């Protein structure tokens, strides 16, 4: 695309609507804004601006649209596929200062807030009202706007669903600067196409979220976890369909292997309750009475023991909960700290194919002589598989990662899986999505993009382009 380069006149306009201390250019832009959490893909914006209101975002977009300047929106920058990298330069709008919680409506179980509010602030805030926002993506410092744009999932998806299931309403700014309100506090809505649901998961390519209405539910009174060691991963994963079928409804079913636990122990300088087995399931149960939870977890514990589990650890004290869940929360950082660089395959396969896929990654380790680490959501088949660079040269790493990823995504297609479970496509995974869906499907996506953004100025080069 033939985009206009940002010049002094454009800067002058941005300063006139935002004032000088919210417009950054050249060396005054921190290098963090050139990449997301995974790195690998990097490009600086020509100008970075901080928005405080919908009106400001609308004015910027109207100007950018008229002048053919590309725009990328950014929250906390915790993405893992390069979706917020400004690969064409242009204007980057930081939404992190639009971070107010605007209203809690206890009668309609709804929370209205701005897109820059952090995930960890939401759960803390609503719990004071005895309410619960169930989506639980691993990165708690992500913004709700970022969660919406990637339709983030997390550990509780197996029971409660993903971000899209909790979006009641959105205010968005279109690429031409027009402001749209989608949905609202209503519980049901069959009025026309669901544009709200299109925005959720669109990775900042269709519109800019400036206000959100979230659905809340009553807060479960109690939660208990089980840590269950198995002799091997096959046995652990093989038990999951039986757990799901048992109607005991765990909130989370995570799988982990010994080497990732050891990395987390080293990273946190904390001991895990048990690190002697090759594979583990970590389950959580929530509810309103101890009796209900005990009935559910005893049923599951018996299923696991019958399937060959070595033991069942009940995680019911604060100290044990902290040891287990802080380790699970640190897996990504721990793996990252153990190598020089890494890239991730965020693949989702049918639940009963998880063990087969993980076994295949073990073969790839030997075939390509590269370290591969994995963990993930056994309950919904979403796996996080990390390929580690270690001592490889940049050129060798580039070649090897392409081959390994090609093999992994091919395997996921064979197993009737999908390219991304929760991190999105962004810039990094576009080729794999085209291989997955084929021309017709991707062309339909391109036409949807064209309907929202005929000049292709909003986050160009991402998802389906």
TrEMBL record:
Which cofactors must be present for this protein to function? Answer: FAD
| A molecular-function term among this protein's GO annotations | FAD binding
Task: Tell me the domain of life.
Answer: Bacteria
Q: Which InterPro entries match?
A: FAD-bd_oxidored_4_C, FAD-bd_PCMH, FAD-bd_PCMH-like_sf, FAD-bd_PCMH_sub2, FAD-linked_Oxase-like_C, FAD-linked_OxidoTrans_Type4, Oxid_FAD_bind_N, Vanillyl_alc_oxidase_C-sub2
Every copy of the FAD-binding PCMH-type domain together lies at 41-219
Q: Which UniProt keywords apply?
A: FAD, Flavoprotein, Oxidoreductase
Q: What is this protein called?
A: Glycolate oxidase
């Amino acid at each position: 695309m033939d985009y206009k380069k940002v010049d002094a006149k454009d800067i002058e306009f941005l300063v006139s609507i935002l004032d000088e201390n919210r417009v950054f250019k050249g060396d005054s832009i921190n290098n963090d804004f050139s990449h997301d959490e995974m790195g690998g893909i990097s490009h600086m914006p020509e100008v970075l601006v901080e928005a405080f209101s919908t009106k400001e975002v609308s004015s910027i977009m109207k100007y950018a649209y008229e002048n053919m300047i590309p725009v990328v929106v950014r929250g906390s920058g915790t993405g893992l596929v390069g979706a917020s990298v400004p690969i064409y330069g242009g204007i980057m709008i930081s939404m992190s200062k639009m971070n107010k919680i605007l209203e809690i409506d206890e009668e309609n179980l709804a929370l209205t807030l701005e897109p820059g509010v952090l995930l960890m602030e939401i759960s803390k805030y609503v719990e004071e009202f005895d309410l619960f926002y169930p989506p639980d993506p691993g990165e708690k410092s992500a913004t709700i706007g970022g969660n919406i744009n990637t339709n983030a999932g997390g550990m509780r998806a197996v029971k409660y669903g993903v971000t899209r299931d909790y979006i009641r309403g959105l205010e968005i700014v279109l690429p031409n600067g027009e402001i749209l309100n989608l949905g609202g506090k209503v519980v049901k809505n069959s009025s026309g196409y669901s544009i709200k649901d299109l925005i959720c998961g669109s990775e900042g390519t269709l519109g800019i979220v400036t206000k959100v209405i979230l659905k809340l539910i009553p807060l479960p009174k109690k939660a208990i976890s089980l840590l269950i060691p198995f002799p091997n991963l096959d046995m652990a994963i093989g038990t999951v369909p039986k757990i799901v079928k048992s109607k005991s409804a765990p909130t989370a079913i995570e799988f982990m292997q010994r080497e990732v636990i050891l990395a987390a122990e080293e990273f946190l300088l904390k001991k895990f309750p048990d690190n002697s087995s090759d594979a583990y399931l970590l389950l959580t149960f929530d509810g309103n009475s101890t009796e209900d939870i005990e009935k559910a977890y005893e049923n599951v514990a018996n299923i696991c023991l019958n399937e060959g589990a070595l033991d069942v650890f009940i995680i019911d004290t604060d100290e044990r909960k902290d040891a287990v869940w802080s380790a699970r929360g640190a897996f990504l950082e721990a793996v990252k700290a153990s190598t020089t660089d890494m890239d991730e395959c965020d693949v989702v396969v049918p639940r009963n194919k998880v063990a087969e896929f993980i076994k295949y990654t073990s073969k790839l380790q030997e075939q390509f002589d590269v370290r591969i680490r994995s963990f993930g959501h056994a309950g919904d088949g979403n796996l996080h598989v990390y390929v580690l660079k270690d001592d490889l040269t940049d050129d060798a790493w580039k070649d090897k990662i392409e081959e390994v990823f090609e093999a992994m995504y091919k395997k996921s297609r064979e197993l009737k899986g999908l390219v991304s479970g929760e991190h999105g496509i962004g810039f990094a995974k576009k080729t794999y999505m085209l291989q997955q869906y084929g021309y017709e499907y991707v062309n339909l996506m391109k036409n949807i993009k064209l309907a929202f953004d005929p000049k292709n100025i909003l986050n160009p080069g991402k998802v389906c382009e």
